[in-house]
Write the structure tokens for this entry.
Amino acid sequence: DSGVTQTPKHLITATGQRVTLRCSPRSGDLSVYWYQQSLDQGLQFLIQYYNGEERAKGNILERFSAQQFPDLHSELNLSSLELGDSALYFCASSVDGGVNTEAFFGQGTRLTVV
Amino acid sequence: DQQVKQNSPSLSVQEGRISILNCDYTNSMFDYFLWYKKYPAEGPTFLISISSIKDKNEDGRFTVFLNKSAKHLSLHIVPSQPGDSAVYFCAASGTGTASKLTFGTGTRLQVTL
């Protein structure tokens, strides 16, 4: 158990809908990352937050948004869902989000868009 | 633009032998490198890391080698065990624009009996 909690574990929704994925980081970790893993693909970095503020942005679509709340949990909002958004979405956390620190991953949310 | 590359999508090794997983990177701003292991339906698990000031880091059966001039790192697993069968991701981070943890596409290792 990495200490990072993601909910829900599975989500099935229709095209055009909006969903929210939730992540609770490890106790004491200030930084949260979101990654997307499509079928047989690597982990694509979406976005990173540190202590409530956006720190880095990757290949995140405009239909997607995220935020980190004062209690440090984070939410990833996916809207106008398309079939191609079906993927595993991972959240990770690290102590300070800086270099030379490893990130710890949650078990992921499997999103299926039908 | 794939800044961290794992060119071998899969690798099969016999139990007891050495497994060597390779990773190349292009961004010279990367100075910290990590290996993660992933089982199906689970999140990646941190395995071992190396800072750019070193060329080798060892932890039990796992050793990571870094060749900065070639922008290449490798993970050696000796001896390989069936429980090592998983997908292995190489990752890198650094300063500035390289500060996010960037992953390779993974190598699926199968250790056979």
Summary: The interface with chain A takes residues 6, 31-32, 34, 36, 41-46, 49, 51, 89, 93-95, 99-106 of chain B (CB under 8 Å). The two ends of chain B are 38 Å apart (CA to CA).
